[in-house]
Amino acid sequence: MSGKELVFAAMPGGWEMVVIALVILLLFGAKKLPELARGLGQGIREFKGAVNGAKDELKEAQDSMESEGNTEDKETS
Question: Is the dihedral of CA 24, 26, 31, 32 positive or negative?
Answer without folding.
Answer: negative
